Amino acid sequence: MRLCELADYLDTYLDHASIADHRDACNGLQVEGRAEVRRVAAAVDACAATITAAADGGADMLFVHHGLFWGTTAPVTGLYYERLRALLRAEIALYSSHLPLDVHAEVGNSPVLARRLGLEVGGAFAEAEGRAIGVWCEAAIGRDELVRRVERALPTRVRLIATGPAEVRRVGIVTGGGGPYIGSAAAAGCDTLLTGEGAHHTYFDAEERGVNVLYAGHYATETVGVQALADHLRERLGLDTWFIDHPTGL
């Protein structure tokens, strides 16, 4: 498949033209590569390790959630230069999708994680850039069982803030750095928030609102979207795809 055609397909499928992102985000094709794409590697982050793994695996494109470019002008030196040089040497195209991948109904991080947990999406909450990026699901599950279910679904160990009910009735899911959305989860009627990470003070936000918080890791909660996108490209377009796992433990 031609690189230009694949980039156009992804732009349309992920609706980059309509979904606002953080000011510095740069969604879409970030680095050009070979004109023909047969193999696509997917990873959470564009870093030296994932770029090397993509090159070693013969990838023509690396699809990531966190790209190299975030809208700011910077000198191409140091580690930044080394990452870009590795892509150019291997002629690997780099494509990135941040908030558009988070919110996508089919391959979005939060909806996919909900399905992995056996939960049905009931609505959306947690606004960023004018659009809800999280989902909430009705549930009837013990808090400890939810923790176990998350740890079976993801390569992670959950850090639990058990300041809500022992029986979970509505859980909100915001992957990545969703700690600031504890208040939004409570306002949406959630007694539990599942997210990646949060700051120290979020313990008190949860405690004083009577909400459980499951911190399952920024990296771990955002593996599911790129994996689902890789599956989609393989099934819909017949491309050879695979996931590069490079966990940070954070």
**Largest sheet geometry:** 6 strands, mixed
The number of strands is 11
Number of helices: 10
Q: What is the structural class?
A: alpha/beta
How far is the N terminus from the C terminus? 36 Å
In round numbers, the mean pLDDT is 96
List the helices and strands in order. HEEHEHEHHEEHEEHEHEHHE
From the structure provided, what is the oligomeric state, counting identical versus distinct chains? Answer: single chain
Radius of gyration: 18 Å
Write structural notes for this entry:
The chain is an alpha/beta fold and 250 residues long. 36% of the residues lie in helices and 26% in strands. The protein contains ten helices and eleven strands. It has helices spanning 3-13, 48-56, 78-90, 99-103, 109-116, 143-153, 182-187, 202-209, 218-221, 223-237; strands at residues 28-31, 39-45, 61-66, 93-96, 121-128, 131-142, 159-161, 167-174, 192-195, 212-215, 240-243. The strands form two sheets. It has a six-stranded mixed β-sheet. A five-stranded mixed β-sheet has the order 1-4-3-2-11, with helices on both faces. A hairpin with a 2-residue loop joins strand 5 and strand 6. Helix 2 runs parallel beside helix 3 and helix 5 crosses helix 10 (223-237). The longest helix is centred in the C-terminal third of the chain and has 15 residues, at 223-237. The radius of gyration is 18 Å and the shape is elongated. It starts with a helix and ends in a 7-residue tail after the last strand.
